Each structure stands twice: as structure tokens, then as C-alpha cells.
Amino acid sequence: MIMSVIRHVICAMSGGVDSSVTALLLKRQGYHVTGVFMRNWDSVEETGVCNSERDCEDAYRVCQMLDMPFHQVSYVKEYWHEVFSNLLKEYHRGRTPNPDIMCNKHIKFKHFLNYAMNTLGADAIATGHYARTSQEDEEVFKQRHITSPKSLFRDRFEIRNPARLYQGADRLKDQTFFLSQISQSALRQTIFPLAGLTKDFVKKMAAEAGFHHVLKKKESMGICFIGKRNFEDFILEYLEPRPGNLVSLEDGTIMGEHKGWFTFTLGQRARVGGQREAWFVVDKDVTTGEVFLAPTTNHPALFRDTMRTDRFHWITDEPPAELVRSSMMECHFRFQNQMPLTPCTVTLNADGSVWITTARPIRALTPGQFAVLYKGDECLGSGKIVRLGPTEHTLHLGRERLKGAPSDPPLTPEPTS
């Protein structure tokens, strides 16, 4: 194994507590650290506040406190063309995209990584994600002083085994879900200093370092780099209204109207006037514009156990040997970051897509979201959900029809001559 020294690390600074402590840790470990703030969205929130300006100031202040160089870089165009435009197309198709996963894939771990390496001459980048890789040299994180010729990190380009992505120590804050589409080459060039820390400990470190201005901030919410907004109002700024009917799945009754099927996602509560009970979105028809509703949050029409993805992205570039060998594998699944991991069976298709069957029906499986797979602590990768199996409601109706169907008459023997 060839060893090389990684000295210059570019830290992605968001103006939040996690990236601030990431920079602090890197400095303590003896790296030459440069902080870079990414600007990816221009407009202000409905409150009239431009969060990116405040975040940039907060990031700059941390860099000053740590005596670090600070840069700003704009990816507004790239974000629009590679993330946001795709988001609009997906909504128009009736799907519900995940911009956070795509933002990491296209912006942070592609454009930002290239800028860090090629423009700033970095040896690696670091982010404040709660995740770890198979290539972290834990002894490095215990160092306080650097003595030559010891290396800080193994040369990730000379290691033949692929880098693997594992859940962070803080399972409640684990962010491997959002990293499930990044490339193998990007993972090899990335450091996750918060890998073994909990959020509470990170906050304690921030307080001890005097980062009080970032500790006061709330957790970032809403669309990646855009923030928390009234979704219907926001999406209608970019997509023309397409009015249609809200239809009861139970009896076909028209219950109201909507401004566009893309303002709804499966499983969400629908505002329907004059109803005592809550109704929830269970299906959408982009051809007719109808959005189908059913009563109660646990209606059988919301539950399925089968889905198909597009070509699956494996973190290690190749499917697991077990899956290649038998075309089938047992592992765990989630399609939302904080949902419990669910046992599943994965079937590999010839085109690289996979079928996933979960051990129990899952509520509101949604086309456009990402099916993320895990084997133990390891995040294997993800694929976009493009097709769903039948709902429990549909299967129940099918069984009822079979019960009511007339049975075939008994076979009569052929007459003998």
C-alpha cells in the first residue's frame, strides 16, 4: 500500500453547528483547513429573510475564530439545471423527488469536490455529515501533533478495496440516507470527522469553542438549500396550475378541487371541507388530473410491500457478490431518512434495476423517492422508485372477487361406447 500525506482539507461550511465543529476538529488534528461556503439559491423566504446571507456570515465568523482562510462559491446555475429543474419535472410526472439526495450527488460531491481539488488544490474535502467510511484511520483522529513522516490518511487512490459507507455513531442523526447516491471516487476523497460523535457532544464542543452564534440556530429544514416554505405556494410559482378533482376511492364521489396533482404526495393529509374525519392521498392520475383520497391514516390503499427502482446505484460501484451470485439478497430498506429499517428481499434485474419486497407492507411508498438499502451498518446505495406493486386495498378487492366468482362445473367423464 502506498502512503501519502493529506494536509490541505477543504471544509464545506454551511453556517451551522455541524460544519463548524467539523472545521474545529480538522484544525485540532493538524490539517491546513480552508472553509468554503456554497451559495446555491438566490431568492428570499416568504418572511423576507435571505437565509443564505446570514449563513454565510456565520460561516465566515467561525473561520475567523479558527484562523482559517474563507471562500465563497456559487452553484446557483448548476443547482437550477441539475437539481431544481429535475425536481419540477418529477413533480409534473406525478412523482415526489428527494432534492437532498440529488443535491449531494450533483452539487456537493461533484461540483464542490472538483472546485476543492482542481481550483483550491485540496487533498480531500470534509463535511459535517453524521456518517463514516471504511477508510477512516481512527488513530489519526486521536492525534494532536503531526510528526513527519507519518501520514494523516491512507492514500485512497492506492487502496484496491472499495470505500464503503457506514452509519455514524449517532443513529438518530445518521445521514447515510442522504449520501446514498454519491460516487465511489467522491467517497474516497471525503472525510467525515463527526463519524464517531453524537449530536449532543458536537453541541458541547461548539459551546466550549465559543460558537454561540451557530448554537442558537434551528436545524435546517425544507428543500435542500431553499429552506422551509409553504410548499403549495412555492411549487405553483414554477408550475402552471392544473386544477382537478379530489375523488373518494371508496365510492368515486367528488369531494373537492385542487390546483394541481403535483401539490400532493402519497400519504399526506388532504384539506377537504365538511368532513368530520381526516382524508389522505392514496393515488394520483396525471392523465385525468384526479387525486384519490381515502379516510383514516392507515387505510389499506396506503400500504404496499413491493416496488421497482431504476438502475440501482451501488456505493462500491458493483452489486454485492451475494446478489450477483443468486440474483436475490436479504437486507434492510428505508425510503425516508428517519423511518425504521425494514427487512426486505432484493431481486436484481438484467438492466441493473432491482425489485424490493419488504417483510411487511409499508405506508405511502412513493414514486420518485429513493429506496436505500442497508446490510448491517453499511449503506449499500439507492435507486429511485419508479414502479409500485399493488396496495393492500387492491389485493383485498381481488381476493373478494375471487370468492364471489362462480366455481367451475365439475368435470364429467367421457361416455364410453
UniProtKB/TrEMBL annotation:
Which InterPro entries would you find in this protein's record? MnmA-like, MnmA-like_C, MnmA-like_central, MnmA-like_central_sf, Rossmann-like_a/b/a_fold
Top-level taxon: Eukaryota
The Gene Ontology CC terms held by the record are: mitochondrion
Catalysed transformations (reactions): 5-taurinomethyluridine(34) in tRNA + S-sulfanyl-L-cysteinyl-[protein] + AH2 + ATP = 5-taurinomethyl-2-thiouridine(34) in tRNA + L-cysteinyl-[protein] + A + AMP + diphosphate + H(+)
Which Pfam family is one of this chain's hits?
Answer: tRNA_Me_trans_M
* The tRNA-specific 2-thiouridylase MnmA-like central domain, residue ranges: 232-294
Q: Which GO terms describe its molecular function?
A: ATP binding; tRNA binding; tRNA-5-taurinomethyluridine 2-sulfurtransferase
Functional summary from the UniProt entry: Catalyzes the 2-thiolation of uridine at the wobble position (U34) of mitochondrial tRNA(Lys), tRNA(Glu) and tRNA(Gln). Required for the formation of 5-taurinomethyl-2-thiouridine (tm5s2U) of mitochondrial tRNA(Lys), tRNA(Glu), and tRNA(Gln) at the wobble position. ATP is required to activate the C2 atom of the wobble base.
Q: Which family does it belong to?
A: Belongs to the MnmA/TRMU family.
Kindly provide the name given to this protein in its UniProt entry: Mitochondrial tRNA-specific 2-thiouridylase 1
Question: Which organism encodes this protein?
Answer: Albula goreensis
Query: What does the organism's lineage look like at the top?
Result: Eukaryota, Metazoa, Chordata, Craniata, Vertebrata
